[in-house]
Design brief:
The structure holds two protein chains of two kinds. Chain A is α/β, with parallel strands linked by helices. Chain A is built from twelve helices and 13 strands. In chain A, the strands form three sheets. Chain A has a seven-stranded mixed β-sheet with strand order 2-8-7-6-5-3-4, sandwiched between helices. Chain A has a four-stranded antiparallel β-sheet with strand order 9-10-13-12, with helices on one face. A two-stranded parallel sheet of chain A has the order 1-11. The longest helix of chain A has 21 residues. The two termini of chain A are about 20 Å apart. Chain B has one domain: Alpha-Beta Plaits (2-Layer Sandwich), CATH 3.30.70. Classes of the chains: A alpha/beta, B alpha+beta. At the A-B interface, α2 of A face α1 and β2 of B.
């Protein structure tokens, strides 16, 4: 199988990830709950992961709140920054992980910047929207559908200038692009553990520049007499037993990313996405590509996108078709009715996989 | 020998403190806080045998590892210490 759906999850995982999870299952008890070796060793493993993440993303270990997914982190961030009916600015390329929580809160949402790969448009529209003094801004670093890398450094700077609290969705960038809580001055940065960080599914992190409102209340192993959740990090955001095997696997993933180098991974993925975009365009497909693109490229087959993905799957090529849980991004690009076929590269994919994909894509010409 | 016990609000801060003290060459042990010394419920602490407790607290402050209370054991009894 040629796996080109790394935007959904990285696959296969580094061997070290499975080994670490297996080790955790046999060695670690519940961290932060006991004083015996198996509990303390579990806590040490958790702290190693907090420290590794903090070092990679520019924050203190205690500012790393473990979550079950990027979505969970985004929900916590949004619930903290936005009150029911509040006013929020988002980019035109947000995932449902951002838009659905805002919809549930009845937020008044301004969508700023809808032109793909156009930083000037993104920044000017975003600045205009911030002038209205919204309660918060939430924006993605990289579009999960089109691989468009948004100018987050500049957007963060604008938020600071207008004193608008903000959260960044780093679902498609953590592990490949520079993500820094300290440099951005963000209130929150949410990320999955199982995509660019190469960890297992069911892991994620919320980097906290401020105290979050907890999504869940429950045991934290600290200040147990109090009925309020602790007013300090990371405990405030971590009710219940942590996913110890998952976090062990995540630590192994982070170490692999650190060893390989996020920049090198990004370069490799972006090169393959560009190669793929060129090849598809030469075949006559409508391709969404631009200068500021990561390791993801979307295109329109001549017929139904799901049927095209199915035909590719039968040739052993795994890609994703449809709306990719981001109808807003499709609306911005004019593909809400058709969807797209998305090809997303990973830390292990190279020219051979691209060529095999392009050879299979040749057969899609002429429609279904 | 004097023994100090430093309490923390969470295991994360205790671990942060443990790492900072070890990097400073100060030997310590991470333990659950004895029930009588943790009025808010559960917590973790670091114990130090002998040595300079004031210096250890300075290391913790510099490392951003906030501690809650310091206890000193002398003649088998623990007393809160003002350092």
């Amino acid at each position: 199988m040629i796996y080109l759906d790394n935007g959904a999850t990285s696959f296969p995982k580094p061997r070290e990830v499975g080994r670490a999870m297996s080790w955790a299952l046999s060695r670690f008890a519940n961290p932060g709950r006991g004083g015996y070796p198996a509990s303390l060793e579990a806590a040490r493993e958790i702290y190693r992961c907090r420290s590794a993440a903090g070092e990679l993303f520019g924050c203190k270990p205690e500012a790393v709140v473990f979550t079950g997914s990027c979505t969970q982190g985004l929900n916590m961030a949004i619930r903290t920054l936005v009150k029911p009916g509040g006013r929020v600015v988002i980019s035109g390329f947000e995932h449902n992980a951002v838009t659905r929580p805002l919809h549930a809160l009845g937020a008044e949402v301004t969508v700023a910047g809808r032109r793909l790969f156009d930083w000037e448009d993104t920044l000017s529209r975003f600045r205009d929207a911030l002038k209205g003094r919204p309660d918060a801004a939430v924006f993605t670093h990289v579009s999960n559908v089109f691989g468009y890398i948004l100018p987050v450094e500049e957007m963060a700077e604008m938020c600071r200038e207008f004193q608008v609290p903000f959260a960044v969705d780093a679902a498609q960038s953590a592990g490949t692009l520079p993500v820094r809580l300290d440099r951005w001055g963000a209130d929150f940065v949410a990320m999955p553990g199982h995509k660019g960080l190469l960890g297992p599914q069911g892991t994620g992190m919320l980097l906290c520049g401020r105290l979050p409102e907890p999504l869940l209340q429950g045991g934290t192993g600290s200040e147990s007499r109090r009925q309020e959740m602790p007013d300090f990090l990371p405990d405030r955001g971590e009710a219940g037993t942590l996913n110890v095997p998952g976090i062990s696997g995540l630590l192994a993933g982070i170490r692999t990313v650190t060893r390989l180098g996020p920049e090198a991974i990004h370069r490799r993925e972006a090169e393959e996405a560009a190669r793929c975009a060129r090849g598809l365009r030469e075949m006559g497909f409508s391709v969404f590509s631009g200068a500021r693109q990561g390791g993801t490229v979307s295109f329109l087959p001549e017929g139904d996108c799901e049927a095209a993905a199915d035909r590719l799957a039968r040739r052993g090529i795994s890609v994703r078709a449809g709306l990719h849980c981001a109808p807003l991004a499709h609306e911005s690009a004019g593909t809400l009715e058709t969807g797209t076929v998305r090809v997303s590269f990973g830390y292990k994919t190279g020219p051979w996989e691209s060529q095999a994909f392009l050879a299979a894509a040749e057969e899609l010409r002429g429609g279904m | 020998m004097k023994m100090y016990l430093i309490t923390f609000r969470s295991i994360t801060f205790a671990q942060k403190g443990e790492g900072a003290l070890k990097r400073a060459g100060i030997t310590c042990t991470l333990l659950r806080t004895p029930r009588a010394m943790e009025e808010r419920g559960c917590g973790y602490c670091l114990t130090l045998r002998g040595g300079d407790a004031a210096a250890a607290l300075g290391v913790l402050r510099s490392a951003g590892a906030p501690y809650r209370k310091v206890y000193l054991q002398e003649n088998g009894r623990w007393e809160e210490a003002a350092l």
